[in-house]
Design brief:
The complex is a heterodimer of chains A (116) and B (113). Chain A is an all-beta fold and 116 residues long. Helices cover 0% and strands 48% of the residues of chain A. In chain A, a hairpin with a 5-residue loop joins strand 7 and strand 8. In chain B, a hairpin with a 2-residue loop joins strand 6 and strand 7. Classes of the chains: A mainly beta (116), B mainly beta (113).
């Protein structure tokens, strides 16, 4: 079974441009999470989807970030316009969502974003 | 102050050594405690998962949680060069808080043959 996939693996853009990151969760997983690690810092939560609904977006840094999950399948995270401080590694994770307990979150390989 | 503190290392040990990795945390609401392993250019991979206080063993790995001290540990016995990676502790408040994970900064481990 395929794991969580993310595209692109790397992106280099200039300040002010727009970038869209994509995440394909494990098939059948209702929960989808976005996390981000900026240089020298820990991995931090951005937001959580349950199917197509945003359950928690408390970690989104500002309104330049827009996340969507069409039809409860793949998700996109758009940064518009990108700023230098947005550089980092963006991780997507998914979990099944069938229990009321902490479920294992399976992480993708991440998208490395560099804003120049 | 960070919610989860973790020594970044690097920690260098000879093959066969016992490795001890630790995290401290400040939020007493954390109920679930995890250790992830991350190889270079890869995503984090779950190693161990513990609910509340206690010990859990899986092969060469043992996870310990002491909620009274807000301190968690991961022990690796008979360490191998293939264990060389960054180890991340992660915690959550559980289902009612959406299961979002709070991570430590990671400890880089190098096991030398």
């Amino acid at each position: 079974e395929a794991g969580v996939t993310q595209f692109p693996s790397h992106s280099v853009i200039e300040k002010g441009q727009t970038v869209t990151l994509r995440c394909d969760p494990i098939s059948g997983h209702d929960n989808l999470y976005w996390y981000r690690r900026v240089m020298g810092k820990e991995i931090k939560f951005l937001l959580h989807f349950v199917k197509e609904s945003k359950q928690d977006e408390s970690g989104m840094p500002n309104n330049r970030f827009l996340a969507e999950r069409t039809g409860g399948t793949y998700s996109t995270l758009k940064v518009q316009p990108a700023e230098l401080e947005d550089s980092g590694v963006y991780f997507c994770a998914s979990s099944q969502g069938v229990t009321a307990y902490q479920e294992t979150q399976y992480f993708g390989p991440g998208t490395r974003l560099l804003v120049l | 102050q960070k919610e989860v503190e973790q020594d970044p290392g690097p920690l260098s040990v000879p093959e066969g050594a016992i490795v001890s990795l630790n995290c401290t945390y400040s939020n007493s609401a954390f109920q679930y405690f995890m250790w992830y392993r991350q190889y270079s250019r890869k995503g984090p991979e779950l190693l161990m998962y513990t609910y509340s206080s206690g010990n859990k063993e899986d092969g060469r790995f043992t996870a310990q949680v002491d909620k009274s001290s807000k301190y968690i540990s991961l022990f690796i016995r008979d360490s191998q060069p293939s264990d060389s990676a960054t180890y991340l502790c992660a915690m959550s408040r559980g289902f009612n808080a959406g299961n979002m994970l709070t991570f430590g900064g990671g400890t880089r481990l190098m096991v030398k043959p």
